[in-house]
């Protein structure tokens, strides 16, 4: 965990009040943590903001979902045509949402980390501190109602209570550390059986309270006597299985592991025909694994997972307009959240998730500074004259690797 333990109102500090090192050692991927009066979350999203999103922002599915008494409501019941000039058929209809809310349904606003500015910033900050992709949903439940039955998630979550109160009942896992291919629906009977036992945590969250749940922990939540609004921050952290999957991708480059099976091999028999093949394959796998370096695996993993978390939003109109009048007095920085690394050979190669950008070797010193994450004045870049500095920076802004510092 890369977050420091100090600094008020860092993204992690808004979710847990204890030092980051303590949280990492005692709770991360291990045990729930209930925290009282951590922060006021109404600056992130409040009830008026929910109305703004529903009534004036033209939301479409899948940014909205509704559920009641443990069942998801068909989107056709609260969406429809967008009207003249909007050639879409799944825009949220606020009057239909009103009817369902009035009848006790829970509203879920999904993907707010891509939609609502304060939550875009929170997700970006928390993602950089924890080095994980972060998604954010909001849940609005009318008084006395429950949207979803007891279930578990295959990723850890922070729950931030914004308004109202909600009772949370938490039970231990039926699957330890489940991954996405192990959703709770495939174990519904086991989940229901464990949910019938007394919970290990039965607590009411009020405004400003926060709850951390590791993946796999069963939970159900119900609103009490007022409208409850909470945010769920999903932490899509990699696992050891992620490393295995990266190794599997790399294994395709090893001829001994691509070799075909002997003609007539029966994979569905009692195992006798594949036993020697299995022995040879395990031997080849061990030999190949011994040749791998951590750097090779890390580089592949970085390339294959970088697209899971988008870099910080940029202002395309402002960037394009400013690019035309770029001067040596302008200040630029690496686009926050963008994974970029330098490979220096005869030319300077900058690797980003979806491409490689090459520059003359004379740019090496300037590129190293530009990719260090700090803000730099164009005219101060080393190793180049002003004309070449402007050419370099224009190119990297055009490639959306750099952004102009406001």
TrEMBL record:
SUPFAM superfamilies, A to Z: Clavaminate synthase-like
Please identify the protein, giving its name as recorded: JmjC domain-containing protein
Highest taxon, organism lineage: Bacteria
Which stretches make up the JmjC domain? 104-252
Q: Which UniProt keywords apply?
A: Iron, Metal-binding
PANTHER family (alphabetical): BIFUNCTIONAL LYSINE-SPECIFIC DEMETHYLASE AND HISTIDYL-HYDROXYLASE (PTHR13096:SF9), MINA53 MYC INDUCED NUCLEAR ANTIGEN (PTHR13096)
For this UniProt entry, the molecular function terms from Gene Ontology, in alphabetical order, are: histone H3K36 demethylase activity; histone H3K4 demethylase activity; metal ion binding
InterPro entries registered for this protein in UniProt = JmjC_dom, NO66-like
Iron in keyword set: yes
Cofactor(s) in the UniProt record: Fe(2+)
């Amino acid at each position: 965990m890369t977050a420091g333990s100090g600094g008020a109102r860092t993204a992690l500090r808004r979710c847990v009040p204890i030092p980051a090192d303590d949280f990492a050692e005692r709770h991360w991927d291990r045990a729930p943590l209930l925290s009282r009066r951590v922060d006021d979350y109404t600056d992130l999203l409040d009830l008026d903001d929910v109305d703004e999103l529903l009534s004036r922002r033209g939301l479409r599915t899948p940014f909205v979902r509704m559920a009641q008494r443990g069942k998801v409501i068909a989107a056709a019941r609260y969406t429809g045509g967008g009207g003249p000039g909007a050639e879409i058929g799944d825009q949220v209809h606020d009057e239909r949402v009103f009817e369902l809310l009035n009848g006790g349904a829970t509203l879920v606003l999904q993907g707010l980390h891509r939609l609502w500015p304060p939550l875009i910033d929170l997700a970006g900050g928390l993602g950089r501190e924890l080095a994980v992709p972060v998604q954010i949903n909001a849940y609005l439940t009318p008084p006395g109602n429950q949207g979803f039955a007891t279930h578990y998630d295959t990723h850890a979550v922070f729950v931030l209570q914004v308004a109202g109160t909600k009772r949370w009942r938490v039970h231990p896992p039926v699957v330890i550390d489940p991954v996405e291919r192990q959703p709770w629906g495939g174990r519904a009977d086991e989940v229901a059986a464990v949910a019938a036992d007394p919970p290990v945590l039965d607590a009411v969250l009020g405004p400003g309270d926060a709850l951390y749940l590791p993946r796999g922990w069963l939970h159900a939540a119900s609103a009490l006597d007022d409208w409850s609004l909470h945010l769920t921050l999903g932490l899509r952290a990699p696992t050891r299985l992620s490393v295995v999957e990266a190794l599997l991708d790399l294994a395709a480059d090893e001829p001994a592991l691509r070799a075909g099976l002997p003609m007539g091999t029966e994979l569905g028999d009692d195992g006798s025909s594949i036993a020697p093949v299995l022995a040879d394959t395990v031997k080849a796998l061990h030999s190949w694994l011994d040749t791998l370096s951590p750097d090779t695996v890390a580089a592949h993993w970085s390339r294959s997972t970088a697209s899971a978390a988008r870099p910080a939003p940029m202002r395309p109109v402002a960037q394009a307009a400013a690019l035309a009048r770029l001067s040596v007095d302008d200040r630029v920085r690496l686009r926050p959240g963008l994974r970029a690394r330098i490979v220096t050979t005869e030319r300077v190669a900058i690797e980003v998730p979806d491409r490689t950008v090459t520059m003359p070797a004379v740019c090496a010193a300037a590129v190293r500074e530009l990719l260090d994450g700090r803000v730099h004045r164009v005219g101060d870049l080393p190793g180049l004259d002003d004309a070449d500095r402007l050419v370099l920076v224009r190119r990297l802004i055009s490639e959306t690797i750099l952004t102009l510092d406001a």
